[in-house]
Amino acid sequence: MTTETKPPPGRVFAGPGNDLGHAPTLADRSSCDPVSTTKATTTTTTTTRTSSCTTISYRLDIIPKNVYTSRPRRRVRADDVMVCDCSLSEGCSENCINRMMFVECDPKYCPCGDECQNCRFQNRQYAEVSLMEPKDLKGFGLMTRQALKKGQFVIEYVGEVVNEEEHNRRKVEYRKEGKRHFYFMSIANGEVIDATRRGNLSRFLNHSCNPNCETQKWQVGGELCIGIFALRDVDANTELTFDYHFERDAQQTQRLRCLCGEPNCRGFVGSKTANVEDARDGLGDDPSSSASQYDPARDEPRPVMVERGHVEDDPLGSLSTSSQQQGGRRRRFSGQVARGQTEVEQFLETVCSEGGVLTSDAHVIAVVRYLKPQYSIFEISNIFQVILASPTRSMREEFVKRGILSALQVLMHRYTEELTKANLPLLRKALDVVSFLPLTEEAIIRSRTGKCSFTTFLLDLCRHHDQEAARRAGAIAEKHLASQLRRRRESQQRAQQQMASSSGWRDRERERERDRDRDRPRIREWRQDGGRPPSLAVNANGKRPRDDARAFLPSPPPRPAHKTAAPPAAAPPPPRPAPTPTSTSNAKRFKEISDAFVWKQSSDDFRAIVREIIEYRVKKSTRDNKVLRKDKAKVEAIIDKLYNKVMKKENERAGGAVTVHKDLVKKVDGYARGHMKQYSK
Ligand SMILES: C[S@@+](CC[C@H](N)C(=O)[O-])C[C@H]1O[C@@H](n2cnc3c(N)ncnc32)[C@H](O)[C@@H]1O
């Protein structure tokens, strides 16, 4: 992106007789007139015309005396020195003429000396701000930890200052690298601040169509600087945003969909007019834009955050790294170590001042010490970058000796447990670090934390649901733990097979259970008839009496043996015939009979059942009849006769269909019992 700073509103103020009637304050700036009464006697540094204001950055010596102060100006030095007219008693605060012109005082020459309150850039009087974890596709953001007053200086936008040519080259380079977010901020005359590789927290400020901050151009020691200032009072722990006033390249035909979520959202970042509908419809959505394609997993960890001390005599600083060679110029940074800078940030700063690579064993020890979950993902990510930039093999070996594997295991364990959007790229990056190290099988096997060995952890990661992480873990395991990986895969396959077969066994068990359920009602029926349930009925000898209902029941389909521990290879038992009545009349007739009790049988089955019931009853009834007992032919004749009668009746009843039903046993047996009464004496 190219973000053009909004020209500071109103730098031209009316003097005595002006509409304001008082010396202008920051609050008055919005009411300024477009035309200045200023008479410039020497060259102005910048002139920008906006619709409502003319913005002019002055040199002190051209400021008309009558406009700003009743006191005589003190011209202290050469033309380019910014000196204000504040008295020592007042100090340079809101009404300081320099400040109102967005020019910082030079502390060497400011009459207020140490009291000067117009050196905020130089003294880095930043508000307490912190990084905000990505909540949505916009990525990271910046929030204020303290309440801000309207007009308060928040932070300077710093980065590498590059010229137009270098800016164009970098744009292409970043696009090729697949960078999702862009951090260019144009200053003037084609110069751009690039905070992609080097910058401070200001680079995480997101765009909003209803921003709470704005950018202002300030002159600091003869340089133009960009500052972020509160547009209104802002509560603590609020996200800070400003309007990007996004400028699109001629080549960039598609727009970046805005995700600020404000009611007045214009739809696209930098759109001059509201275009919300288009944005909702996905029209003009840039598929390569960060917002539409933001994938935190693919996002590179942010570059090492560097804040350099300001070197008075060498505005380029001593950081003559690649950026300088590429035409980039270091933005000047002021002062000592930043307020609120963490230990890790300070460490990273030191490393970066030495070219961005680790140079000593002390560094290695520090790095391993910083690989702990208590440090922010931002810090860890930067530490990973630093490790990955280790130049020598001996240094990488030193990491292994110092126990980096255990430290990484603890981190990765945390990331897998809390697999947030932000943790996933770190998990993958940690695996990159592992594969970057010169590992041996022995080193891996020896490494372990309290939870488990690194080997087990790594092999488990090979089955992680994030395919990319699993792939990276798999590659490491293939390289160093090939035999273990193979064994693990084999045992997994075996387990899967067992699972599959045991689930088949469970299915068969369920089938058996259903069979038993089918039997149970028939047993109940028998009990209604005065008998005892066959399963429970035992005689005095503990044996099941012969006269149980089973004698009359059709034998159930063959069941597999119950006690087989190992699953039988045989196919599951054939399913019972569907319990559908044969016709509508049957359905009506047996409507009171549940499906579980009625199933269609072949005529042979039916006849066998009927015959069995009759034989049983007839033989039992003739036991006491000595004459009949001996006349077997007569008994057979009775059986045949009864059987034919029953069959005739049943056929009539079922309309020709032969259907075994729950009443069959009772009915046939009752019929036979009644018939045999005549033979009982
Ligand atoms: C200066 S960076 C801001 C920090 C960035 N969010 C990050 O995670 O590093 C600008 C980039 O943030 C994203 N961005 C910022 N504000 C946005 C918004 N309102 N809607 C969509 N994307 C936004 C865009 O990808 C843009 O290129």
TrEMBL record:
Q: List the residue ranges of the region (Disordered).
A: 1-20, 25-44, 276-337, 482-587
- Name the domain of life: Eukaryota
Xref: Pfam families: AWS, SET
Q: Where is the composition biased (Pro residues)?
A: 1-10, 569-580
**Could you cite one Gene Ontology molecular function of this protein?**
histone methyltransferase activity
- TM stretches of this protein: none
List the biased-composition ranges (Basic and acidic residues). Answer: 296-313, 505-530
Q: Name one GO biological process term.
A: methylation
Sorted alphabetically, the keyword list is: Chromosome, Methyltransferase, Nucleus, S-adenosyl-L-methionine, Transferase
Protein name (database record): Histone-lysine N-methyltransferase
